[in-house]
Specification:
Order of helices and strands of chain B: HHEEHHHHHHHHHHHHHHHHHHH
Order of helices and strands of chain A: HHHHEEH
Radius of gyration of chain B: 22 Å
Oligomer: heterodimer
Strand content of chain B: under 5%
Number of domains of chain A: 1
Number of strands of chain B: 2
Number of helices of chain A: 5
Strand content of chain A: 5-15%
Structural class of chain B: mainly alpha
Radius of gyration of chain A: 18 Å
Number of helices of chain B: 21
Strand order of the largest sheet of chain A: 1-2
Shape of chain B: globular
Structural class of chain A: mainly alpha
Largest sheet of chain B: 2 strands, antiparallel
Shape of chain A: elongated
Distance between the termini of chain B: 19 Å
Helix content of chain A: 55-70%
Chain lengths: 140, 499
């Protein structure tokens, strides 16, 4: 596809979509959003980029192969789930550390395994979708 | 406590991640092998825990049943996990010899470990929707494994496989949706009482039939088995062995679980259908095998015919029959995976799996011949091998309730199985090689054949051990069957009601 309008618009779209995908990821758990939907939007950003500049360029922008991203994500999600082992809880029990308070309403922010798990999901979805679409684009 | 249940699933997943990152290095395959060994340890720990404490359950994420996802292991679940780990380890060793490097770097080991994780998860979950998720994990991994290495034949097989399996999961998913709409729960233990309390029992039977069809495709029973012989003869032998051993058995397990735990309201209707389905499955499978001349296609059709015995154990629905079904399940996984392993080694020696184009293996590879005889005769039900006890229990159960015709079919199918096995024996092992060459073991690299013969010998030994010392295994199967028929323990453990 060689359209100047699309290529010019893609630059804007890609950064917007990507920021929005991170926003969706971070907003998850307490509000609608999360790793899955964030990963999908992030994948759309890269797909738009690959449509504008070609899959080879898009692969370069990603730096590591999408399959590796997906596998790293799986590992990260698993680690987040296994973390509760050290605290004697069953797998995937969310561990929360509230900073400046003791609940969602009172604290400034929190450190938790749920976000780590969500980032893992984000990477799995991003990597999985991209490995599929890149394969299709390169085939034709 | 809960980690005992988690580890058999988590270990293969973690192994998959590490093995994938190391896929371009020789270390990848050793990581996969070590992971499989670790899985076996984890499942052995689970087995010990179940033997000591009976049914054990854990609530993931600390959400109480029936709201969260429950992992639960009773005798049947635990033994299936152990046998999955054994098959996994055997396949990991076999793959050292068979799988070429370029396929390894495509991620063979990672996909294989994910498949094992999916199968294990399906055996351990106590939640119906989670079971669906594990089915999907298995489907994705197995489809990728099936087409690994490429080629027209594999893609053709892969598409048939994935299309028919998607239909089955869709029916299964619709069934889940309807069941949830009626009862408001998907926890299997909770469903037992909720389903019994539903006013419109006719509708429950309809949903039960949807589940039977959905699992029936997975298990490859009579009118739904087309995908199996269309796909199992194409992938690498290590892959088809693990498919043959485990995948259809997940369907059988799911049938056994659902039709003893949840859908027991109208046994006269559902299980009666299952009896005839089983009889037809046994018979069509074995007749289909008689028409084939490819080593793996014959074995594929025999999977179908053997599935019939297992579902028959469930369908007859007596303690003895279920005990036979459980025993059959375990015996069959070992034997069937082993026969596919043997087929792979025979191809290494003789150059093909088409029985018309190979021969002379008896003279040149007597060890392989001996190792073929053990699982082949066990499959056919020769005493004193493991298959004899399995068939004996099923037939005896059929005779006990005066189902003479069913018992007759079961015996006849055993006889016809011998016919197929002697056909392989005669054509692959006894007759001279049609090209006039001597298929000596030297034709294949020693490193390759050594890795391939170890799992074959190991599984054959297990078949013999079960055959000669069936007592502990039969007793185990008996307890498993008792737990299936009276799941009070299961339900109470899951729902946390301590007696």
């Amino acid at each position: 596809m060689n359209s100047i309008i699309f290529t010019a618009a893609a630059r804007l779209l890609v950064s917007l979509l990507f920021v929005f995908s991170l926003f969706m990821l971070l907003r998850g758990h307490h509000l609608p959003g999360g790793g899955f939907i964030g990963g999908l939007i992030g994948a759309v950003a890269f797909i738009v980029y690959s449509l504008a500049c070609g899959p080879a360029e898009a692969r370069k922008a990603l730096r590591i192969t999408p399959e590796t991203i997906a596998m790293l994500g799986l590992g990260l999600a698993l680690l987040a789930g296994m973390f509760s082992f050290f605290l004697g809880d069953p797998l995937f029990t969310g561990q929360w550390y509230w900073v400046g308070g003791d609940s969602y309403e009172t604290s400034a922010f929190s450190l938790n395994t749920v976000l780590v798990f969500d980032i893992g999901v984000y990477l799995v979805v991003l990597g999985g979708i991209l490995s599929l679409t890149y394969a299709f684009e390169e085939e034709t | 406590m809960s980690w005992v249940l988690v580890m058999p699933i988590a270990v293969p997943f973690a192994t998959a991640v590490v093995a994938y990152l190391a896929r371009n290095y020789p270390a990848g395959r050793w990581i996969s092998l070590a992971g499989s060994a670790l899985s076996l340890v984890a499942s052995a720990v689970l087995m010990v825990a179940v033997l000591n404490e009976g049914v054990i359950a854990a609530q993931m994420s600390n959400w109480d049943a029936p709201f969260g996802i429950t992992l639960v292991a009773d005798y049947l679940g635990a033994v299936m996990v152990v046998i999955t780990a054994i098959t996994g380890l055997a396949t990991a060793i076999y793959a050292l010899g068979e799988i070429p490097e370029h396929v390894e770097s495509l991620g063979f080991h990672a996909l294989f470990q994910v498949l094992i994780a999916g199968v294990t998860g399906a055996f351990l979950t106590g939640d119906l929707f989670n079971l669906y998720v594990w089915f999907e994990v298995m489907l994705i991994a197995s489809f990728s494994l099936l087409v690994l290495g490429g080629g027209k034949e594999r893609l053709d097989a892969g598409i048939k496989y994935v299309a028919l399996n998607l239909v089955s999961t869709l029916i299964f998913l619709s069934g889940i949706g309807l069941l949830y709409g009626m009862t408001g729960t998907l926890n299997m233990a909770d469903l037992r009482d909720s389903v019994a309390a539903v006013e419109n029992q006719g509708l429950v039977t309809v949903i039960a039939m949807m589940f039977m069809v959905g699992f029936g495709v997975k298990a490859a029973v009579f009118p739904l088995f087309f995908w199996l012989p269309a796909s199992y003869h194409t992938p690498y032998f290590a892959i088809s062995a693990v498919f043959a051993g485990l995948l259809t058995k997940v369907g059988v397990y799911a049938l056994m679980r659902m039709f003893t735990l949840v859908f027991v309201g109208d046994v006269g209707f559902t299980h009666e259908i299952l009896i005839w389905v089983s009889a037809l499955t046994m018979f069509t499978g074995v007749i289909g095998a008689a028409a084939q001349t490819d080593f793996r296609k014959i074995l594929s059709f025999h999977i179908i015919s053997q599935i019939g015995y297992m579902t028959l154990g469930l369908a007859l629905f007596t303690p003895l029959a279920l005990m036979g079904g459980v025993f059959y399940l375990v015996h069959h996984i070992i034997v069937k995976a082993n026969l596919f392993f043997v087929a792979g080694l025979a191809q290494q020696y003789a150059g093909s799996t088409d029985l018309n184009r190979i021969g002379g293996l008896y003279k040149s590879a007597p060890l392989l011949a001996a190792l073929f005889i053990i699982p082949a005769f066990s499959l056919a039900g020769f005493p004193p091998l493991s298959g004899f006890w399995a068939k004996y229990l099923i037939v005896k159960a059929a005779l006990e309730i005066d189902a003479w015709f069913i018992a007759f079919v079961a015996l006849l199918v055993g006889l016809l199985t011998i016919f197929s096995m002697t056909k392989i024996w005669g054509m692959a092992f006894w007759k001279p090689h049609p090209d006039g060459i001597d298929p000596t073991p030297d034709r294949a690299p020693a490193g390759v054949t050594r890795a391939m013969i170890i799992p074959i010998a190991g599984l054959a030994t297990m078949t013999i051990v079960i055959g000669f010392f069936p007592e502990p295994f039969v007793q185990f199967a008996q307890t498993a069957a008792e737990q299936l028929l009276d799941p009070t323990d299961y339900v109470e453990t899951v729902l946390g009601v301590q007696p």
